[in-house]
Automatic annotation (TrEMBL):
Cofactor dependency: [4Fe-4S] cluster
The protein's name in its UniProt record: DNA 5'-3' helicase
InterPro entries per record: ATP-dep_Helicase_C, DEAD/DEAH_box_helicase_dom, DinG/Rad3-like, Helic_SF1/SF2_ATP-bd_DinG/Rad3, Helicase_ATP-bd, P-loop_NTPase
Substrates-to-products reaction catalysed: ATP + H2O = ADP + phosphate + H(+)
Biased composition (Basic and acidic residues): 175-185
Keywords: ATP-binding, Helicase, Hydrolase, Nucleotide-binding
Family under the similarity heading: Belongs to the helicase family. DinG subfamily.
Stored Gene3D superfamilies: P-loop containing nucleotide triphosphate hydrolases (3.40.50.300)
Taxonomic lineage: Bacteria, Bacillati, Actinomycetota, Actinomycetes, Propionibacteriales
PROSITE patterns tied to this protein: HELICASE_ATP_BIND_2 (PS51193)
C-alpha cells in the first residue's frame, strides 16, 4: 500500500533536509539501517522518515499516522540521530520505552556506525530509580524516625532489592526499577523516593553516586533522550526542569498524550493525607502548628462525609471552608519548621515530613481557589479506600500550545491519529488549530494570524491489506446495550462467535462485570476451551497463556484495549461488547463535554465520540499485527450501524470489509480455525 497524504505532502523546501557528515541522506541511512537489521524497507516508512526530517529542518509541527507494521520507530529515530541538535523521544508506555532502549536504538547505532552522534540516554521520574540514601540509612516512619527494616517476607524482598541496588552502584548500573528483581509496589517504595522526599544531590551524602543524578548527567552529554509523556509534561508544561534543553520532541503513542498530561496535572487530597502530614511534623515543630493541622484534618473529614461523591458544579460551603482551613494550617506548619541551619545537617525524616506538608498545602490551595480552569470532584472511595478529593485541568491543549508547541518543534506519531478520517480532533486536543494546517504548496488552510503554529498531517498508510485480512462485523440484530450489563442475546452471540473461532478470542469489555459475565458463560457452555478473565492472574502471565494455547479466550477491560501484541493464530476474533463512550458520571469527561457545548461546539462529538473512536481504533488494532494475520472484529453494539455518529466511529477504524450478517461471520471464523 502506498502512503496517502492528508491535507499536505511531506515537508519540502530543502533538497537534503537531513544528512550525515559524509553527505548521506535520511533515505540512504534508513536503507542501510533496515538492511543491517535484516528487515525490508516500506514506502510508508520512507515517506515518514523524510517528513520527520523535513519537520525538524523547517520547524513546522507534524502529525503522522503510521499503521502497525510500518516500522515507525526507525522512521523517526534515523532523522533524530541525523538532526544537528538534541532530540527528545517521549513514549506513553514503559513497554515501548524498553523496546526503544533495549532493542531499536542499540541496533540502529550499530548499523549507522560513526557517521553521526549516536549518544543516547533514558530519563524517568525519580521514583523509578532506587535511592541509595533510603537503602543505606533506612526509611522514615510516620513520625519521621528511621526504621531499619520491615519484617517477614517483605523484609526479605527489601533485602534482595537493597543488595541489587548496591551491586548496580558498584558496577555502574542504572538502578532502574525495570531491571530490579521481581517486587511489588509496596516493596519498591522501601528503596525509592519521590521528588518531595529527596534530600537533593548537594545535601545527600550519596549524591555523587545517585542513580537519578547519573542519569541526568548522561542525558546532558547525549544527543538523543528517551523519556515518557508524564516527565515531558512536568518539564515543558509545569516548568519543573527535568530534561536538558532540546530542539525537537518526537511524541510516540501520541494518541495517549492528552490523557497522560492530564494525569500528570491531577492532584488528590484526603483527610488521611492531612492527618499523616500533621503526625510527621510533630517531631520537628515546637509550637501548636502541627496540632492545628491535625484539627484541620478532622474538619476536612467531616466536610467530605457531608458531601456527595461526584463532580462539584459549585463547591459546598462547608467543604470550601474546610479546604481554606487546611491550606492556612499547612502554610503555618511549613513556616514553623526550623531552618536547616538551626536543626543541624540534612535529615531524611525532616525532609519527608516537610515535603508531605508542602504537598498538602499545594493541593489544598489549588482546590480552595475553585478555578474555572480546574475540575474538582469527590471519589466514591471503597471498602478500604476512603473518599478523596481530586482536581484536574478542564483542558490541556492551552498549556500544551503555550508552553510546548510555541517553543519546540513537535512530531506526533501513532497508529491512531485520524479520527473520523481526519486529523482535526487529535490536533485540536494537543493545541493545534485545524485552520493552521498546511495544505499542498505549503499554504495555511485558514487565515494566518500572529502566533499561528503551522502544522502538517501525513498518513503513510499500512503494510496490511485490511480489506482482505479482516472483517468488521456489527451485530445489528442485537438490542442496544443496557445499563444492566450483558443480556442473554449478547451472551448467546459471544458464545456462538467463540465456538466458531474455536477459542482464539480476545474480548474487550466496557466493565469488569461484563468481562466476568462473558467468561462465566463461555466456561459453562464451551468447557473444552480455556477461558481466562482479567484478574485471574497478572496480565503478563495471562497474555503468555493466551499466546501459548490457540484454543484460549482472554476477556478483560481497558488495559487490554491498548498495547497487547498477540500476532498469529492466537487471536482471530476481537470482541467489543459496546461502544466505549465515557461513563455519564465521569467527572472530567462530563465537565469537558459541557464546556465544549458552552463554547458553541458539539460536546458529545468532540469529547465522548472522540474518546470512543480512539479506544475502538486501538481495540480493533489488536487483531492484525502481521501481513499473515486474518480475523474478525465483532462489535456487539448495533449503534455502530444505526446511530448518526456510527459513520464517524467506523471511519476511525482500519478499512476492514464490513458485514452485519452473523452467518457469514461464523462461517469465516470456522474456516480460519479449520473446524
Amino acid at each position: 500500500m502506498h502512503p496517502t497524504v492528508s491535507s499536505t505532502s511531506p515537508a519540502t523546501g530543502s533538497a537534503d533536509p537531513a544528512a550525515t557528515a559524509d553527505g548521506s541522506t535520511v533515505r540512504e541511512v534508513l536503507a542501510g539501517a533496515v538492511s543491517a537489521l535484516g528487515g525490508s524497507q516500506r514506502d510508508g516508512q520512507v515517506a515518514m522518515a523524510e517528513a520527520v526530517a523535513g519537520a525538524m529542518e523547517d520547524g513546522k509541527h507534524l502529525l503522522v499516522q503510521a499503521g502497525t507494521g510500518t516500522g515507525k520507530s526507525l522512521a523517526y529515530l534515523v532523522p533524530s540521530l541525523l538532526h544537528d541538535q538534541r532530540v527528545v523521544v517521549a513514549t506513553a508506555t514503559l513497554a515501548l520505552q524498553h523496546q526503544l532502549v533495549e532493542r531499536d536504538i542499540p541496533r540502529l547505532v550499530e548499523a549507522v556506525g560513526d557517521k553521526v552522534d549516536t549518544s543516547y540516554a533514558v530519563l524517568k521520574g525519580r521514583s523509578n530509580y532506587a535511592c541509595l540514601h533510603r537503602i543505606r540509612e533506612g526509611v522514615p516512619d510516620d513520625q519521621g524516625a528511621l526504621v531499619e527494616m520491615p519484617s517477614g517476607s517483605m523484609g526479605q524482598k527489601v533485602l534482595e532489592l537493597r543488595a541489587w541496588a548496591e551491586e548496580e552502584a558498584e558496577q555502574g548500573g542504572s538502578g532502574e526499577r525495570d531491571n530490579a528483581p521481581r517486587h511489588t509496589d509496596r516493596e519498591w517504595r522501601q528503596v525509592s523516593v519521590g521528588h518531595r522526599d529527596c534530600l537533593g544531590a548537594a545535601k545527600c551524602p550519596f549524591g555523587q553516586e545517585c542513580f537519578v543524578e547519573v542519569a541526568r548527567e548522561k542525558a546532558h552529554r547525549s544527543h538523543l533522550i528517551v523519556t515518557n509523556h508524564s516527565l515531558l509534561a512536568i518539564d515543558a508544561i509545569e516548568g519543573v526542569p527535568m530534561i536538558p534543553d532540546y530542539d525537537v520532541v518526537v511524541i510516540d503513542e501520541a494518541h495517549e498524550l492528552t490523557a497522560r498530561v492530564t494525569q500528570a496535572a491531577t492532584d488528590e487530597l484526603s483527610a488521611s493525607d492531612v492527618e499523616r502530614a500533621a503526625r510527621r511534623s510533630q517531631r520537628f515543630v515546637d509550637g501548636s502548628e502541627a496540632d492545628d493541622l491535625a484539627d484541620a484534618a478532622d474538619t476536612l473529614r467531616d466536610a467530605i462525609a457531608e458531601s456527595d461523591p461526584g463532580r462539584f458544579e459549585r463547591v459546598p460551603q462547608q467543604l470550601a471552608d474546610a479546604l481554606v482551613l487546611v491550606r492556612d494550617a499547612a502554610r503555618a506548619c511549613l513556616s514553623a519548621y526550623p531552618k536547616e541551619g538551626e536543626s543541624g545537617d540534612a535529615d531524611a525524616g525532616r525532609t519527608q515530613a516537610r515535603g508531605s506538608v508542602q504537598e498538602v498545602f499545594a493541593n489544598a490551595e489549588r482546590m480552595a481557589a475553585d478555578l474555572e480552569s480546574d475540575v474538582l470532584w469527590l471519589s466514591e472511595g471503597g471498602e478500604r479506600i476512603p473518599p478523596r478529593l481530586c482536581v484536574a485541568p478542564l483542558q490541556v491543549w492551552g498549556p500544551m500550545r503555550d508552553k510546548l508547541l510555541t517553543d519546540k518543534t513537535v512530531v506526533f506519531t501513532s497508529a491512531t491519529l485520524m479520527l473520523g478520517g481526519d486529523f482535526s480532533a487529535v490536533a485540536t486536543s494537543v493545541g493545534l488549530k485545524p485552520s493552521e494546517r498546511l495544505v499542498d504548496g505549503g499554504t495555511v488552510a485558514g487565515s494566518v494570524s500572529e502566533g499561528a503554529l503551522p502544522w502538517r498531517g501525513l498518513d503513510v498508510g499500512s503494510p496490511f491489506d485490511y480489506g482482505q485480512q479482516a472483517i468488521l462485523y456489527v451485530a445489528r440484530h442485537l438490542p442496544p446495550p443496557g445499563r444492566d450489563g450483558l443480556g442473554k442475546a449478547q451472551l448467546d452471540e459471544i458464545v456462538e462467535l467463540v465456538d466458531a473461532a474455536d477459542g482464539r478470542a480476545l474480548g474487550l469489555f466496557s466493565s469488569r462485570r461484563a468481562a466476568e459475565a462473558a467468561a462465566e458463560a463461555v466456561r459453562e457452555r464451551l468447557p473444552h476451551l480455556t477461558t481466562l478473565a482479567q484478574g485471574d492472574a497478572q496480565l503478563p502471565e495471562l497474555a503468555k497463556q493466551f499466546v501459548e494455547d490457540p484454543h484460549t479466550c482472554l476477556f478483560g477491560t481497558l488495559s487490554l484495549w491498548q498495547g497487547l501484541d498477540v500476532p498469529g493464530d492466537t487471536c482471530q476474533l476481537v470482541l467489543i461488547d459496546r461502544i466505549p463512550f465515557p461513563r455519564p458520571d465521569d467527572p472530567l469527561m462530563s465537565a469537558r463535554q459541557k464546556a465544549a457545548d458552552r463554547a458553541g461546539g458539539n460536546g458529545f462529538m468532540q469529547v465522548a465520540a472522540t474518546h470512543a473512536a480512539l479506544l475502538m481504533a486501538q481495540g480493533a488494532g489488536r487483531l492484525i499485527r502481521t501481513t499473515s494475520d486474518r480475523g474478525v472484529v465483532a462489535v456487539l453494539d448495533p449503534r455502530l450501524a444505526t446511530a448518526r455518529y456510527g459513520g464517524f466511529l467506523k471511519a476511525s477504524l482500519p478499512p476492514m470489509w464490513t458485514t452485519t450478517d452473523p452467518a457469514v461471520v461464523r462461517k469465516a471464523l470456522a474456516r480460519l480455525s479449520g473446524s
